[in-house]
C-alpha cells in the first residue's frame, strides 16, 4: 500500500498541466539576465538562456526560483513545433492589471504562465511571431554541473548568501549556516535565492545546509575557509 501511494505521488508530480507561454527580450537574451530570483549573470552561473519568468500563480513569492520545468507547445498546429524544452525558473513575470488576462495581461493571477527567453520560445514554436502559445508543463529534476554554489555578499555584520546551481528539486526553501565557532544558524530568505543572517562570521570557516521543496537536504562542511572574502563564490556538495 505504501509503495502504491508513493508511486501515485510521483505520477502526480510528473503529470502535465496547462499554461501559456510568451517570450521577452531578443535572441541575445540580455534582458533575461538578473531578475527577481537574484541570480545575476545567468550565463556565468550556468543557467544560460534556458530560463523563464513565472507568473504569480507559479512563482510562489520566489520559492519556486531554481525549479526546473519541461514544456511543450500544444493545441496550436499553426505555431507549435514538436519536441520539449527544459527551463529553470529565474525571474518573475509581474501582472499587468491595466490589461485583461486574455489580452496582454498574460501573467495576471490566476493564470499559469511562462515568459521564456526568446531562444527557448523559438525551440517550441515554428516562428517567434506566434507571440503567445498554449503549453503543457511539468516539474522535472534539475541536472546541474558541479556542486551547489554559494556567493558570499553583505558586510561584517550582515551575511547575505546567494545559492545557485542547485540540482534535484532546485528550489531552495530553507538554509542554515555554521561558522567554525558557532552552531547551526537558520538563515532567512531576503529575496529570490538570497539568504541572510545578521551575525558576524568573518574569520570563521563556513558550512551550509540547503533544503529543497522535496524535503531533501544536503550539507556542505567547511565550504568557505576562514579567510573567505565578500564577493567570493564557493562550491559545495550537490543533490
TrEMBL record:
* Protein family per UniProt: Belongs to the expansin family. Expansin A subfamily.
Name the chain's protein: Expansin
| UniProt-listed PROSITE patterns | EXPANSIN_CBD, EXPANSIN_EG45
The Expansin-like EG45 domain, residue ranges: 34-147
Q: Which organism is it from?
A: Elaeis guineensis var. tenera (Oil palm)
Q: Which residues form the Expansin-like CBD domain?
A: 157-236
The cellular location(s) given in this protein's UniProt record come to:
Secreted, Cell wall; Membrane
Print the keywords alphabetically. Answer: Cell wall, Cell wall biogenesis/degradation, Membrane, Secreted, Signal
The GO annotation for biological process reads: plant-type cell wall organization
Encoded by which gene?
Answer: LOC105058274
The protein's topology relative to the membrane is: Peripheral membrane protein
Question: What is the role of this chain?
Answer: Causes loosening and extension of plant cell walls by disrupting non-covalent bonding between cellulose microfibrils and matrix glucans. No enzymatic activity has been found.
One cellular component (GO) term of this entry: membrane
InterPro entries membership: Expan_Lol_pI, Expansin, Expansin/allergen_DPBB_dom, Expansin_CBD, Expansin_CBD_sf, RlpA-like_DPBB, RlpA-like_sf
Amino acid at each position: 500500500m505504501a509503495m502504491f501511494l508513493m508511486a501515485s505521488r510521483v505520477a502526480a508530480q510528473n503529470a502535465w498541466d496547462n499554461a501559456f507561454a510568451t517570450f521577452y527580450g531578443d535572441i541575445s537574451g540580455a534582458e533575461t539576465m538578473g531578475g527577481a530570483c537574484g541570480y545575476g549573470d545567468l550565463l556565468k552561473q550556468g543557467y544560460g538562456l534556458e530560463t523563464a519568468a513565472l507568473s504569480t500563480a507559479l512563482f510562489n513569492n520566489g520559492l519556486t526560483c531554481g525549479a526546473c520545468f519541461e514544456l511543450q507547445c500544444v493545441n496550436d498546429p499553426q505555431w507549435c513545433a514538436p519536441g520539449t524544452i527544459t527551463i529553470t525558473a529565474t525571474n518573475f513575470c509581474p501582472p499587468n492589471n491595466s490589461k485583461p488576462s486574455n489580452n496582454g495581461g498574460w501573467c495576471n493571477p490566476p493564470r499559469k504562465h511562462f515568459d521564456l527567453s526568446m531562444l527557448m520560445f523559438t525551440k517550441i514554436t515554428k516562428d517567434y511571431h506566434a507571440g503567445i502559445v498554449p503549453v503543457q508543463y511539468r516539474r522535472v529534476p534539475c541536472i546541474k554541473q558541479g556542486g551547489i554554489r554559494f556567493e558570499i555578499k553583505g558586510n561584517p555584520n550582515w551575511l547575505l548568501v546567494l545559492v545557485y546551481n542547485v540540482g534535484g528539486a532546485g528550489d531552495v526553501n530553507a538554509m542554515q549556516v555554521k561558522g567554525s565557532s558557532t552552531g547551526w544558524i537558520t538563515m532567512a530568505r531576503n529575496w529570490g535565492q538570497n539568504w541572510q543572517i545578521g551575525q558576524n562570521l568573518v574569520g570563521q570557516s563556513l558550512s551550509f545546509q540547503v533544503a529543497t521543496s522535496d524535503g531533501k537536504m544536503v550539507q556542505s562542511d567547511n565550504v568557505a575557509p576562514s579567510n573567505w572574502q565578500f564577493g567570493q563564490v564557493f562550491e559545495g556538495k550537490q543533490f
